[in-house]
Write a structure and sequence with these properties.
Ribonucleotide Reductase, subunit A, binds fe (ii) ion
Length: 226
Amino acid sequence: MCLDGVDVVMIFLAKNERQQISRLFAFLLQGEQLAFDCAKRQSVFFTDTWHRRFLANQARQERFHAAVFRSASGMLTPKGLSAIPGKREFEQYGMLLSECLQRNDSMGSLLGMQILLEGLGDVALNHIDAGFELRGIDGMCQRVRYLILGQEDAHHQFGINTFQNLLGEESEISAQLRQQCQDYLELIEQLMESTKELFHYFDENTDLYMDEFYQSLPVWVSEQRK
Ligand SMILES: [Fe+2]
Ligand SMILES: [Fe+2]
């Protein structure tokens, strides 16, 4: 049975398992909040209706994803959590993105959000989904899980395609974009490092996530890995 997108079977898990799953949802929630804020601000960068609508729609979807993860985490640990992994790294990532958004930098913000952060989210969510199924934990009802996975994939593809269109005929990526890319990737490496222990609890290896993530990116982006 689903309650606000959360399967009620989760409430009957052992206390430690409930806390760890709640931490995982709280970790994901931070990414959704950042994506909501970013997509909402990006939507005004574009003059054409299609891009504006896509981004406004993305913002609505991110707000829904955030609500699902917030309610899932809150239902599992009603008294709250003492520590949420990735807090500092998400804050720093948000500051980098905010600098881009303040100067209406559409390419830099698409790179930071839809291409990189959502590319990572795509890999992580697919593994988490598979891991939950393997452990016999439904987590969130199947319909909601598939809906979120499909929407995240669409956001990531939108970012790659729009970035490529803005790049146009230019084959050379500017030094500024390469530097931005390296800054984003450095924080993403730190972010995943901060979650190692949590993912290890679920028998997940974040090093494999990172390899998969880099393989999924455009070649010039993965070349910025240090
Ligand atoms: Fe999302
Ligand atoms: Fe998204």
